[in-house]
Amino acid sequence: MSNVLNPGVLQGNDTIPGNEYAYYFTLDRPWFMSKGAMIAYYGQASFHALTAGIGAGLQQMVAGTFSAPMYQQDFVVVEGQGTLIIGDRGYTINSYDLDEGNLTVRASNLLALEPGIQLNQSIVPGFLTLIGTGKFLASSNGPVMFVEPPLRVDPEALVGWADCPSPSLHYDQNWVNSFMSAGAAMLGINSGEERQYDFTGAGTVLIQSSEKVVDDHHVVRNIEQQLPLVSPAGLAMLQQRITAQQQQQHH
Which InterPro entries match (predicted)? Predict the structure, then answer.
């Protein structure tokens, strides 16, 4: 039987002993946390939505941290005294320390961050950029590999990148022109063999050990924002692609 947890065992900030899928940290100052990440806590904790209904002090902290209004509804402020335990879909959880750094991470994998970090919306849909100094927690589907550019990465395997330019999209023309790919494109199917993120320059790329991405609501929200710019003919085309994709997934 594994060790029974108590506040005396969970001191400081670390993954649960023998469990890389849950992380605990001392709640002695406010943190920003992804909604749904909390699984348990010792002591006292209160959770506040990032809305106009919070106190003036928290409003000021939110204003100094969040420059990504589209993602503001996905986070809360947690404050109190005690130990907070968080998790994410059974994913591996890691702690990262920024020191006047610049790191972009997949939005659905960002779990918590200290208020000293500024959160900006990346130009790459579904990603957030963290700037400044402080600690943040992020999940990954398997252990994270840290790789130097130049390289190309499967979009679903990408966790984030630090201190290097945003990637460009690279399409494998041989794959795109193949009969199999042409048939898949009609059904709205994409893969890492067809489309990759191309990284150049200095920096570090964070890659998870699996291509599986479970949570895509941030990408859906980016698409929704573009819909007012789409013509009726374009909307009809999108509807056809969506229907074909749903039929393919049900087979």
Answer: AIM24, AIM24_sf, Trp_RNA-bd_attenuator-like_dom
User: CATH code at 101?
Assistant: 3.60.160.10
Query: Is residue 38 in a domain?
Result: yes
Q: Which domain holds residue 27?
A: 13-140
Of 121, 140, 159, the domain-final residue: 140
- Same domain for 136 and 233, yes or no, is no
Q: What is the pLDDT along the chain (251 residues), one digit of tens a residue?
A: 467 888 888 888 899 988 999 999 998 888 999 999 999 999 999 998 887 666 677 777 787 788 888 888 899 999 899 999 999 989 999 999 999 999 999 999 999 998 889 999 998 888 999 999 999 999 999 899 999 999 999 988 999 999 888 888 877 666 555 544 444 444 444 554 567 899 988 899 999 987 665 556 666 766 776 777 778 887 788 788 778 877 776 66
Instruction: Give a yes or no: residue 169 inside a domain.
Output: no
Long-range contacts: 121-125, Cβ < 8 Å, 24+? Answer: 121/67, 121/68, 121/69, 121/70, 121/71, 122/166, 123/166, 124/166, 124/167, 125/218, 125/219, 125/222, 125/223
Instruction: Look at the chain and report how many structural domains it folds into.
Output: 2
pTM: 0.79
Are the CB atoms for 185 and 171 separated by under 8 Å? no
| Nearest alpha-carbon partner for 62 in 128, 137, 113 | 113
Residue 221 lies in a domain: yes
